[in-house]
C-alpha cells in the first residue's frame, strides 16, 4: 500500500507521520491509535473521471474490485494531500490488514487551548476542529504533532481534583467538552437496507449465483434458475433480517432515555443523558431501577448497584465515596477505584445520602430541603469510552479469530473451480470438433462451471450452526457469537476460575485461629473468644442494609452473620469532638455490655492490593482504630514484626493445604496518626497506605468453600477427552492446589512464588493426615496423598499440630534457576503452580521463552490479577492451543473475551462479557458446550464433504453425457438438486451431539487426511462403479447410442428426406421438439440409465458421510433424516426397477423427466445390483478405512506432534539437556557417567548464554537419559547437546516431526 501513495523520497517523511501517534501516546490526553498506517488524501476530479470511465469500460469489474479493495479505488480517485491538516479523506490500514477510507470532518465549535502568554492559562475559542472517526473513536488533528491523534475522552484528574468538581461545570466548559468528546450515547449504526443489500449482492459467492441464474435462464432452465434465485434471495433476506434484528437488539440494549439532574453554573438543571459530559456533577436519586448512563466516580453518598448486565454477577455491589486523598502522583483510575465507580450499564438498587466531610454540610443543606435523598457522582467517561461502550465496541469490532475451516473452504472451492475449468475446456474442444452451434457450446461450457460451485453451500453451513445453537438454547446456554460454536469443538485447554465456578459461591464458616502477643492462642469455632478478632469480624466489611437485606460479598456476609452483631444504617452522621462526621454504618453488639462501633471510613477490597480496611470508633468515645483483612501474604507484609507468630507460615500453609479459605485479620490504633482531637477533615484525608501500615496481626479467619458436585465429573470428563484443565484464580495457591487435588488435577506439585524479592520454588507436601502428625511439631512423619474429600482433618485437631514454630524447615525453597535441573531429575509426573507475583517477576526479569514455557506448563495460577488472567489466555493461544475459559464474569471478563470459547456462569440470558453464557450457572455446561461444538464442527465437515461430492458427481455425469452426445433436462436437474441433495443436506444437519466426549477432537483442516481420504476414496469408488455402469451399458446388445439414433436426420433432428412417408428410425423415434435440448438429444438411453444410477450415488454419499458416530449420535437417531433416506432409496429403487412396466406410472415419470423406454428388466436389475455394491463399498470404506485406520493414524500423528512440541518447548528452557555424558540412575535419581560424576543441567537458555568454551568442548558430546515421558527417545541434530535414546519407531517419528 505504501507504494501506491508515496514515492521513495517521501517514505521517510510518511514513516515519521506514522510514528507520530506513538509519540503522542505518551501524552495522557491521547491514546495509541488502533490502525497500523494512515495516509492523507484529497479529492481529484480527473481521478474520479478516470475511475468512472474505467469502471464503465470494464463492465463494472473495476468498480467491484474497488469495492472489495478500497486501496485500489482510492489510488485512482484521490490524490495525496499536502498535509494531514488539508486532508479531506484519510485511508487507514487496520490491524486485520484491511484498508478503510474515512471522510475528514471540520466542525466549528468551542475548544480549549493554552494561551500564548506567560500565565499559561487555558482559553476558550471558537475554532474548526478537524477530526475523523474510526472504530467509534475520535482522531483529532493536533498542531503539535501535525497529525491526527486518538482522543482520550476520559477524566484524568486526581481524587482531590475530582472532589473539587462537585460544584459542577459551567455551560461553556460543558459545551467545550461536548464538542470534543461527542454526545453521551452508544450509537449503533442504522445501515440503510439498500447498502446492506448491495454489499450482499456483490459478495463473490452471490455474484457467482447471479451469473449462474443468467446462464440457466439462457439455457431455458427456468424452474431450476428460479429455485436458486429464490434460495439466494431468501438467504440474503434472512441475513439482512438477522443483521437488522441484531442491530435492533443491540440498540435496545444501549438505548437510554433518561433525564439527569446535574449541577451547571452552580444550579441544578435537568439535561438528557446524551448531553452529559465528562466532569459533570450528577445528582443521584434514590429510584430503584434507575440506569447508570455514564461511568461516574461517587464523591458523595453511597450507592448499591446491580452490575449483572456487565459482569453477569447477580449480587449487587456497594459503591462508596471516592477517597479525598490518594497516593502521591496517582490519578483516578476505574480499575483501582472500582469500588468508588458507578459503571454505565449498571442499575441503581439504592442510594444512600452521606454528609460532606470537607465542608461539614449535608446534601440536605447544600441542595435545599427538597433534596434529602441524593448523592453526587462525577462523570468520568461517556459514550463508547465508558465501560459499557468498550464492551459494545468489542462486539461491533471483535478481534478476528481465524478459523482454518473457513480459510480452507475457499481453497476447496478454488479446486472445484479448476475441475470445472478442465471440464469447460474438454466440452469446448468436443463442441468445436463436432461443429456444434457456437451459442450451444458457450452455454454448455458455462453450465459446467455453474454446477461446480454448489448453490446451497452457505445456507447449509449456516443452518447447521443454527441447529446447534438452538439445542444449546434449550439447555439454557446462550450465545452472542455463533461462529465460535465450531471453535468449541477444537478446545484442548480449558481454564477455570475457582470460586463460584469449580467451587460454590457461598462460603461456610469454620472458625478462627486468633493470635495475641505474637503467638497463636488456639482454634475456636465461634467469634466470642478474642476481642480483637471479634472487632475485626464485626466491622471490617462492605455490607449494606438494602431493603432489610444484607448485601455484600459472600465472605463478608457469612463472617458478619456468625458474629451475631447487627448493622444499622439509619444514622447518617455522628459527632466527634463536637463536629459532624459521616457514618458508613453502625454496628450494634448482641449483648448490652459490649460497645457499639461507628464505621467512619471504608476502603473497599482491592484485587490488586488483596485487602480491605475500615476506620471506626467506639460509641463510648474511645480512640479511633482501623481494621484490615485480606490475603495472608498481603497482611503479613503490613504487620508489625512483633505481632507475627513465629509459626505464621506453618499454620497458614497447613490450613491452606487442607483447602480452607483463609483471611488474615489485623487491627491498629490510630492514635499516632491523628491528633488527640481529630477533625472531620483529618479523618477524610486519611490515606489508605496510612491505615494499612504497621498493623497488629489478630489471627486467621477460616471459611470453607465446597467443591461443586458437578465439578468432579466434569473435570474427569475433560481428562478422558484429553482436554487439559487448568485453574486461574485470585485465591491462595495452597487452597487452589487443594481444590485441584480434590478434582484429581494434580498430586505432586511444585509451587513457584516470590520470597524476599527472589523467585523460588518449593515442593508442596501431600495433604497431611491427623493421625500422622506430631502434636509437638507441624512436620509430618510421613506424607499421605489422599486426594479425597473425606481426608480433611478437623481444624481444632489440626491447630494443635500446626501451632509449633519452625514448621516449614522441611519445605526448603530453591532458586528458580534450579527448576530445570529438578524437572529433569524427577521421575514422577509433577505439576506446577505459580503465583501472580512470581509470574510478574518472571515476565520482568527473564527471557520470554521461559515465561511462555511456564504459561503452557503450569497447572495452577493463583493470586492472579484480572490482567494476568487475560495474559495467560493470550499466551496459550499464541502457542497454537484452542483455549476455553469458564468463570463467573466478575474479575475474569478480559479472559472470557480473549479465549476462543468463553463461558460465563451468569443469570443473564446473554452476557455481553462472554461469547457463551450458562444461565444455569453450572460448570457441567462446559461438557454440553464442547459436545455441541464438536457436533457442529463435524456437521460442518460432513455437510461440506457432501456439498463437494455432489457437484463433482454431477459435473462428472454432465461431462460424460456431453461426451456421449446427450444432455440432462431441466426437471432432472431440479429433482437432483431439490428432492435429493438439498433435502438430504438439510436433514443430515439435525443429528445431535454424541452422549460423551471422545478422546480425539475433530479436525479443523479441510486438507486433513481424514477429509482428503474420505472425499478421494468416495470419488474413486463412485467413479469406478459409474464407469462400470457406463461400460455395461455400452456393451449391451440392446443399446443404441445417440449418434446411431441420429442417423438419417438433419441438424434439426428431422428426416433428411422430409417428403418420405416410410422413414425408418435407426433406434427409436425422436421428437424434434420434446426430445431435443440445446441441439442434443436429451431423451436417450445414456441419459436414462446414467441419470437413474447417479441418483443412488447422491444418496450413497449422504449415508456414507453420516455413518461416523465419533462426535455425533448415530444417524438413525435423527428420525427425519433416517426416514427420508430410507424413503428415498425405496423411491429410487422403484423408479429404476419399474421402468417401462405398464400401469406402474412410468408414463408420467417418463414424460416428467424425459426418460427413454425400452431398457430390459435384467439390465435394470443389474444396474440396481451395481448401486448396492457401490453402497456397500462406500459404507465399508468410510467405516473401516476412514473412521478406523485413517482417524487413528491422524490421532497418533497429532499426539506425536503435540509431544514433540511440548518436549521442544521444555528443551528451549534447558529441561532434559545435560552437559556431561551420563545416565540417570533410576534407583537413586542421580546423574552419573562412567566416572560417576553428576551431569550439570544446561539451563542457560532462558537467563543467559552458553559460554563459548563450553559450547566448543561439548559440541559433539552425546547424552542419554530416561525420563517418565510418553516420548522416550529424542534426537535433535540442531542442538549442540544431543539428547538421545534407542532406535525405536517413536523416536524416528519424533525426530521427523521436530525437524
Would you spell out the secondary-structure blueprint of this structure?
Elements (H helix, E strand, L loop, with lengths): L1 H4 L5 H14 L5 E2 L3 E9 L1 H13 L3 H8 L1 H8 E3 L8 E6 L4 E5 L1 E10 L7 E13 L2 E6 L4 E5 L7 H5 L7 H11 L11 H9 L2 H15 L3 H33 L4 E6 L2 E6 L8 E5 L9 E6 L1 E5 L1 H4 L5 E3 L21 E2 L4 E6 L10 H5 L6 E8 L5 H10 L7 H30 L4 H15 L4 H18 L2 E3 L4 H4 L5 E4 L11 E9 L2 E6 L6 H9 L4 E2 L4 E2 L2 H10 L2 E3 L4 E4 L2 E4 L2 E4 L8 E10 L4 E8 L5 E7 L1 H5 L11 H10 L2 E10 L10 H5 L3 H4 L4 E9 L6 H10 L3 E5 L4 H10 L6 E7 L2 E7 L30 H8 L10 E3 L3 H7 L5 E5 H10 L2 H10 L2 E3 L3 H13 L4 E5 L5 H6 L2 E5 L10 E3 L6 H39 L6 H18 L21 H27 L6 H4 L30 E2 L2 E2 L3 H21 ...
Parallel strand pairs: 20-34, 20-40, 34-39, 35-38, 38-39, 40-41, 41-42, 47-48
Antiparallel strand pairs: 1-9, 2-3, 2-4, 4-5, 6-7, 7-8, 8-9, 10-11, 10-12, 12-18, 13-16, 13-18, 14-15, 14-17, 19-42, 21-22, 21-33, 23-24, 25-28, 26-27, 28-29, 29-30, 30-31, 31-32, 32-33, 35-36, 36-37, 43-44, 45-46
Helix pairs in contact: 3-5, 4-5, 9-10, 9-15, 10-33, 14-15, 14-32, 16-32, 18-19, 21-25, 21-26, 32-34, 32-36, 33-36, 34-36, 34-39, 36-37, 36-39, 39-41
Organism: Spizellomyces punctatus (strain DAOM BR117)
Catalytic activity: ATP + H2O = ADP + phosphate + H(+)
Pfam families: E1-E2_ATPase (PF00122), P5-ATPase (PF12409)
Amino acid at each position: 500500500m505504501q507504494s501506491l501513495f508515496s514515492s521513495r523520497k517521501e517514505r521517510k517523511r510518511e514513516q515519521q507521520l506514522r510514528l507520530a501517534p506513538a509519540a503522542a501516546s505518551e501524552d495522557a490526553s491521547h491514546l495509541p491509535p488502533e490502525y497500523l498506517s494512515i495516509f492523507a488524501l484529497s479529492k481529484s476530479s480527473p481521478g474520479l473521471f478516470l475511475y468512472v470511465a474505467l469502471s464503465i469500460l470494464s463492465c463494472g469489474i473495476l468498480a467491484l474490485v474497488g469495492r472489495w479493495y478500497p486501496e485500489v479505488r482510492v489510488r485512482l480517485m484521490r490524490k495525496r494531500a499536502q498535509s494531514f491538516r488539508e486532508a479531506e479523506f484519510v485511508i487507514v490500514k487496520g490491524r486485520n490488514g484491511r484498508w478503510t477510507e474515512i471522510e475528514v470532518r471540520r466542525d466549528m465549535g468551542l475548544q480549549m487551548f493554552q494561551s500564548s502568554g506567560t500565565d499559561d492559562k487555558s482559553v476558550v475559542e471558537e475554532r474548526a476542529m478537524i477530526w475523523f472517526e474510526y472504530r467509534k473513536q475520535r482522531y483529532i488533528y493536533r498542531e503539535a504533532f501535525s497529525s491526527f491523534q486518538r482522543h482520550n475522552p476520559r477524566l484524568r484528574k486526581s481524587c482531590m481534583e475530582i472532589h473539587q468538581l462537585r460544584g459542577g461545570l459551567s455551560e461553556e466548559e460543558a459545551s467545550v467538552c461536548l464538542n470534543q468528546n461527542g454526545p453521551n450515547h452508544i450509537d449503533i449504526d442504522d445501515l440503510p437496507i439498500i447498502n446492506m443489500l448491495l454489499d450482499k449482492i456483490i459478495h463473490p459467492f452471490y455474484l457467482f449465483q447471479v451469473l449462474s441464474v443468467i446462464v440457466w435462464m439462457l439455457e431455458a432452465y427456468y424452474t431450476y434458475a428460479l429455485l436458486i434465485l429464490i434460495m439466494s434471495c431468501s438467504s440474503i433476506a434472512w441475513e439482512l433480517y438477522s443483521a437488522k434484528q441484531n442491530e435492533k437488539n443491540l440498540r435496545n440494549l444501549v438505548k437510554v432515555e433518561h433525564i439527569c439532574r446535574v449541577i451547571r453554573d452552580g444550579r441544578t438543571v435537568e439535561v438528557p443523558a446524551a448531553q452529559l459530559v465528562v466532569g459533570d456533577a450528577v445528582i443521584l436519586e434514590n429510584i430503584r431501577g434507575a440506569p447508570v448512563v455514564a461511568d461516574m466516580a461517587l464523591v458523595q453518598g453511597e450507592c448499591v448497584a446491580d452490575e449483572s448486565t456487565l459482569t453477569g454477577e447477580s449480587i449487587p455491589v456497594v459503591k462508596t465515596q471516592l477517597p479525598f486523598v490518594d497516593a502521591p502522583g496517582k490519578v483516578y483510575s476505574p480499575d483501582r477505584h472500582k469500588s468508588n465507580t458507578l459503571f454505565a450499564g449498571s442499575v441503581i438498587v439504592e442510594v444512600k445520602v452521606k454528609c460532606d466531610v470537607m465542608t461539614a454540610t449535608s446534601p440536605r443543606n447544600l441542595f435545599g430541603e427538597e433534596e434529602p435523598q441524593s448523592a453526587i457522582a462525577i462523570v468520568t467517561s461517556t459514550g463508547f469510552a465508558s465501560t459499557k461502550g468498550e464492551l459494545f465496541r468489542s462486539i461491533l469490532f471483535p478481534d478476528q479469530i481465524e478459523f482454518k475451516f473457513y480459510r480452507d473452504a475457499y481453497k476447496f472451492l478454488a479446486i472445484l473451480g479448476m475441475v470445472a475449468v478442465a471440464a469447460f475446456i474438454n466440452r469446448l474442444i468436443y463442441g468445436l470438433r463436432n461443429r456444434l452451434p457456437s451459442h450451444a457450446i458457450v452455454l454448455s461450457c458455462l453450465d459446467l462451471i455453474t454446477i461446480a460451485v454448489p448453490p446451497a453451500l452457505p445456507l447449509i453451513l449456516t443452518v447447521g450452526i443454527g441447529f446447534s445453537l438452538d439445542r444449546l438454547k434449550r439447555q439454557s446456554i446462550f450465545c452472542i457469537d455463533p461462529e465460535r460454536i465450531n471453535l468449541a469443538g477444537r478446545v484442548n485447554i480449558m481454564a477455570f476460575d475457582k470460586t463460584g465456578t469449580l467451587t460454590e459461591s457461598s462460603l461456610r464458616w469454620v472458625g478462627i485461629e486468633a493470635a495475641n502477643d505474637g503467638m497463636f492462642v488456639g482454634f475456636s469455632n465461634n467469634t466470642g473468644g478474642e476481642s480483637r478478632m471479634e472487632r475485626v469480624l464485626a466491622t471490617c466489611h462492605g455490607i449494606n442494609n438494602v431493603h432489610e437485606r444484607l448485601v455484600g460479598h459472600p465472605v463478608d456476609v457469612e463472617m458478619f452473620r456468625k458474629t451475631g452483631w447487627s448493622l444499622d444504617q439509619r444514622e447518617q452522621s455522628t459527632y466527634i469532638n463536637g463536629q459532624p462526621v459521616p457514618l458508613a454504618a453502625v454496628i450494634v453488639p448482641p449483648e448490652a455490655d459490649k460497645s457499639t462501633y461507628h464505621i467512619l471510613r471504608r476502603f473497599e477490597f482491592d484485587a490488586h492490593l488483596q485487602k480491605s480496611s475500615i476506620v471506626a470508633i467506639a460509641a463510648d468515645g474511645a480512640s479511633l482504630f482501623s481494621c484490615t483483612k485480606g490475603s495472608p501474604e498481603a497482611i503479613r507484609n503490613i504487620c508489625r514484626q512483633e505481632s507475627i507468630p513465629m509459626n505464621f507460615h506453618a499454620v497458614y500453609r497447613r490450613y491452606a493445604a487442607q483447602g480452607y479459605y483463609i483471611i488474615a485479620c489485623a487491627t491498629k490504633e490510630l492514635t499516632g496518626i491523628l491528633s488527640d482531637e481529630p477533625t472531620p477533615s483529618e479523618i477524610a484525608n486519611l490515606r489508605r497506605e496510612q491505615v494499612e501500615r504497621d498493623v497488629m496481626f489478630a489471627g486467621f479467619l477460616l471459611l470453607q468453600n465446597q467443591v461443586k458436585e458437578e465439578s468432579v465429573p466434569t473435570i474427569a470428563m475433560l481428562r478422558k477427552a484429553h482436554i487439559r484443565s487448568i485453574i486461574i484464580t485470585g485465591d491462595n495457591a495452597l487452597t487452589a492446589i487443594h481444590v485441584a487435588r480434590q478434582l484429581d488435577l494434580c498430586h505432586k506439585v511444585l509451587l513457584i512464588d516470590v520470597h524476599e524479592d527472589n523467585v523460588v520454588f518449593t515442593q508442596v507436601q501431600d495433604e497431611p493426615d491427623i493421625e500422622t502428625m506430631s502434636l509437638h511439631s507441624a512436620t509430618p512423619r510421613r506424607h499421605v496423598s489422599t486426594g479425597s474429600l473425606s481426608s480433611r482433618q478437623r481444624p481444632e485437631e489440626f491447630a494443635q499440630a500446626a501451632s509449633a514454630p519452625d514448621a516449614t524447615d522441611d519445605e526448603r525453597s530453591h532458586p528458580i534457576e534450579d527448576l530445570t535441573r529438578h524437572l529433569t531429575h524427577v521421575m514422577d509426573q509433577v505439576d506446577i503452580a505459580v503465583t501472580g507475583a512470581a509470574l510478574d517477576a518472571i515476565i520482568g526479569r527473564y527471557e520470554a521463552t521461559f515465561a511462555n514455557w511456564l504459561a503452557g506448563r503450569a497447572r495452577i495460577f493463583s493470586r492472579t490479577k484480572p490482567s494476568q488472567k487475560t495474559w495467560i489466555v493470550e499466551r496459550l493461544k499464541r502457542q497454537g492451543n484452542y483455549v476455553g475459559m469458564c468463570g463467573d464474569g466478575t474479575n475474569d471478563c478480559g479472559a472470557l473475551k480473549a479465549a476462543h470459547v468463553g463461558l460465563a456462569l451468569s443469570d443473564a440470558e446473554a452476557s455481553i462479557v462472554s461469547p457463551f453464557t450458562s444461565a444455569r450457572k453450572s460448570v457441567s455446561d462446559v461438557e454440553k458446550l464442547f459436545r455441541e461444538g464438536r457436533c457442529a464442527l463435524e456437521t460442518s465437515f460432513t455437510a461440506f464433504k457432501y456439498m463437494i461430492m455432489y457437484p463433482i458427481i454431477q459435473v462428472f455425469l454432465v461431462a460424460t453425457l456431453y461426451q456421449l452426445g446427450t444432455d440432462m433436462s431441466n426437471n432432472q436437474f431440479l429433482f437432483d438438486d431439490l428432492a435429493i441433495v438439498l433435502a438430504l443436506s438439510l436433514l443430515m444437519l439435525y443429528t445431535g451431539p454424541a452422549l460423551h466426549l471422545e478422546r480425539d477432537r475433530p479436525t479443523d483442516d479441510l486438507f486433513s487426511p481424514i477429509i482428503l481420504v474420505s472425499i478421494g476414496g468416495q470419488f474413486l469408488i463412485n467413479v469406478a462403479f459409474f464407469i462400470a455402469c457406463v461400460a455395461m451399458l455400452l456393451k449391451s446388445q440392446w443399446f443404441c447410442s445417440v449418434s446411431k439414433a441420429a442417423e438419417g436426420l438433419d441438424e434439426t433432428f428431422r428426416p433428411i428426406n422430409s417428403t418420405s412417408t416410410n422413414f425408418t428410425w435407426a433406434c427409436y423415434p425422436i421428437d424434434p421438439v420434446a426430445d431435443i435440448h440445446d441441439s442434443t438429444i436429451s431423451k436417450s438411453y445414456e441419459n436414462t440409465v446414467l441419470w437413474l444410477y447417479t441418483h443412488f450415488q447422491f444418496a450413497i454419499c449422504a449415508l456414507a458421510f453420516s455413518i461416523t458416530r465419533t462426535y455425533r449420535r448415530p444417524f438413525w437417531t435423527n428420525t427425519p433424516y433416517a426416514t427420508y433416506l430410507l424413503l428415498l432409496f425405496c423411491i429410487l429403487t422403484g423408479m429404476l426397477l419399474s421402468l417401462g412396466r405398464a400401469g406402474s406410472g412410468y408414463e408420467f415419470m417418463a414424460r416428467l423427466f424425459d426418460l427413454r423406454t425400452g431398457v430390459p428388466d435384467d439390465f435394470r436389475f443389474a444396474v440396481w445390483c451395481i448401486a448396492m455394491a457401490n453402497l456397500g463399498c462406500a459404507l465399508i470404506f468410510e467405516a473401516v478405512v476412514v473412521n478406523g485406520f485413517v482417524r487413528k493414524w491422524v490421532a497418533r500423528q497429532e499426539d506425536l506432534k503435540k509431544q514433540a512440541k511440548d518436549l521442544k518447548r521444555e528443551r528451549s528452557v534447558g529441561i532434559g539437556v545435560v552437559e556431561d555424558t551420563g545416565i540417570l540412575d533410576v534407583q537413586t535419581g542421580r546423574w552419573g557417567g562412567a566416572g560417576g560424576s553428576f551431569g550439570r543441567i544446561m539451563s542457560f537458555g532462558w537467563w543467559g548464554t552458553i559460554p563459548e568454551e563450553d559450547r566448543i568442548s561439548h559440541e559433539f558430546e552425546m547424552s542419554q537419559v530416561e525420563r517418565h515421558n510418553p516420548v522416550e527417545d529424542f534426537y535433535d541434530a540442531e542442538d549442540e547437546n544431543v539428547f538421545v535414546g534407542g532406535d525405536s519407531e517413536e523416536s524416528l517419528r519424533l525426530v521427523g516431526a521436530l525437524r
